[in-house]
Amino acid sequence: MTIENFTISTLGPQGTFSHQAALKVIEYLQPLEISKELSFEKSISRVFRAADNEIDLAVIPLENSTAGSIGTSMDSIIEYNRQGMQIIAEIDLEIAHYLTGHGDLSQVTTIYAHPQAYAQCDLFIDNKLNAVDVIYTTSNAESAKKVQESNSPAIAAIVPQICLDLYGIPMLAENIHNSSLNSTRFIVVSSKEYVIQHFNSRVKSKSTLLIDPRDDRPGLLNEILQIFAAKLINLTKIESRPSKRRLGDYVFYLDIQADISHPILQDCLIELQKTAQIRNLGSYNRIV
């Protein structure tokens, strides 16, 4: 099959951390001498729908190191995996916030910020600008546009680095986030076999499994975990999600440091199949 271009979708608008993560994917694909077309959707659900239809691959935020997992992303990859969608790569993106404005700190009276951005920078705001009004926006890009459209030194916004470049706005303060260890994990997903095969060219460092127990009894989760422990396979994430069958019924989402094709992991899966249904949501490597 001759591929002329890769179409990529992510959560918009331009200037978001999702945009930054998508640019890393485009850079990773640079050795392919084909065009890469990036488009933006208004919600995570729409990004998944695009990847299930006309778009080749999508870049999705999955979890933040301080805020935790994004339920919509987890539930969507579980749902669309039934139609063949897989996780084909992951990206860990350092989250750094900047204060932008046309004046200086002493002149700022109003700050525009996405709620999550503000929550991750509130210590700086309280210490340096505790008398300002904070107006919430729907995205970091919208915050940046408020500064771009205003020449008032009283207006400032909390934005990522990409917004400074995209909207040509000046920086008042850098690295204003509360934690220097703040990062977001993104996954790259696709339902297109030719895309999946391109990313399957080498041994994978991680796999994500969905474990659906056949019954509910004391000690069941411990039995599942012991199967991996006995084979010295490291689990980097385990989280329960509602099965959506009935109240109190759950499935388990596991990240495992092993390629799904590894013989030891295959032995684990054979043992697990005695008590649970298993789906592989993808085996993949990290894009750096």
From TrEMBL:
Pfam families: ACT, PDT. The keyword Amino-acid biosynthesis applies. It is an enzyme of class 4 (lyase). Keywords: Amino-acid biosynthesis, Aromatic amino acid biosynthesis, Lyase, Phenylalanine biosynthesis. It comes from the Archaea. GO terms for molecular function: prephenate dehydratase activity. Signal peptide: none annotated. CDD domains: ACT_CM-PDT, PBP2_PDT_1. Residues 209-286 form the ACT domain. Residues 7-191 form the Prephenate dehydratase domain. InterPro entries: ACT-like_dom_sf (IPR045865), ACT_dom (IPR002912), Chor_mutase/pphenate_deHydtase (IPR008242), Preph_deHydtase (IPR001086), Preph_deHydtase_CS (IPR018528). Its EC number is 4.2.1.51. Pathway: Amino-acid biosynthesis; L-phenylalanine biosynthesis; phenylpyruvate from prephenate: step 1/1. PANTHER family: PREPHENATE DEHYDRATASE P PROTEIN, PREPHENATE DEHYDRATASE-RELATED. This is prephenate dehydratase.
